[in-house]
Amino acid sequence: MESVFGLVGNGFAVVAADTSAVHSILVHKSNEDKIMLLDSHKLIATISESGDRVQFTEYIQKNVALYQFRNGIPLTTPAATNFTRGELAAALRKNPYFVNILLAGYDKETGPSLYYIDYISTLHKVDKGAFGYGSFFSLTMMDRHYRSGMSLEKAIDLVDKCILEIQSRLVAAPPNFVIKIVDKDGARHCAWRESIKDASVVPSA
Known about the structure:
Elements: E1 3-8, E2 12-18, E3 21-23, E4 26-29, E5 35-39, E6 42-47, H1 50-71, H2 77-92, E7 100-107, E8 111-117, E9 123-126, E10 128-132, H3 135-145, H4 152-169, E11 177-183, E12 186-193
Antiparallel strand pairs: 1-2, 1-10, 2-11, 3-4, 5-6, 6-7, 7-8, 8-9, 11-12
Helix pairs in contact: 3-4
Subcellular location: Cytoplasm; Nucleus
Main location: cytoplasm
Keywords: Cytoplasm, Nucleus, Proteasome
């Protein structure tokens, strides 16, 4: 019952993901971080089988770092997204990765952005997006409450609404969620939700 969703606000993008590692009816972990920092101003959130998810995101992360090391400048968010999409497409007919991705980043020239990439390499730039069983409910909540240019406080409140809806509606709902943001100050952890009663929404430095 994996869930990942994100949205773009006024000068930032926020991504949330459940932290459950499951196989069939077994829960292996409840603190698995499914949102990886690609570099100082990019986040990649994925849902998939654990092997594909870890291998593919680490492969993308190392190649983004390699590009910056060789050229002295980081990839922009659109460039990193197109590289990620290209690698998924190249693997599709050889040894496909069954990963669904939300990639968020912040660029000095263009500001925050969020990209949707599914396992068959479909790519879209979006203001809000989601994957997994939780997407049925998080997309509904975002369609109802999302507004362009939201403040961070309102965005986190909407994220909490989505988490509450997922935990209320899914039969086997994930108990924990991690929330991360990216803005002009960089990509970083924002909050951890064990239940909606956790009201701490102030981003850590």
